[in-house]
Amino acid sequence: MAKIVYTDHERAAPYVKWHGVEFVHGQETPVDEREHGNLIRAAKDNPWFKVIGDGGSPAAGPTAKATARGKA
After folding, report:
1. Buried b / exposed e across 11-32, counting CB within 10 Å, b at 16+?
2. Which residues contact 18 (CB under 8 A, 6 or more apart)?
3. What pLDDT is attached to residue 53?
4. Using an 8 Å Cβ cutoff, are 31 and 13 in contact?
5. Helix, strand, coil proportions of the chain in percent (round to 5)?
6. pLDDT level of residue 59 (50, 70, 90 thresholds)
7. CA–CA separation, 62 vs 38, rounded Å?
């Protein structure tokens, strides 16, 4: 099980939903490597996300855009 941490660098969106998973600024969100391999791969290259313990999953699949909720 991998964990992903979302960091709201601009303090504009404390909550985001990305690849169907909700993230809260600064909190570790557990994600299943088999179900969310494409999310893990995309998070590795995204400066707003940090992957912890991905288990070496061969994350494959297209990336998706994030939708944010928070201050305008």
Report:
1. eebeebebbebebebeeebebe
2. 6, 39, 42, 49, 64, 65, 66, 67
3. 86
4. no
5. 10, 35, 55
6. very low
7. 6
The Cα–Cα gap between 58 and 8 comes to 27
Q: Is 11 left (phi over 0), alpha (psi -120 to 50) or beta?
A: left
Query: What is the model's pLDDT at position 34?
Result: 92
Q: What are all long-range contacts of 41-46, with beta carbons under 8 Å and residues at least 24 apart?
A: 42/18, 43/4
Amino acid letter, residue 65: K
Structure tokens given for 49: 């996300």
CB under 8 Å to 56, separation ≥6 — which residues? none
pLDDT grade for 67, boundaries at 50, 70 and 90 = low
67: number of CA atoms within 13 Å, CB side?
Answer: 5
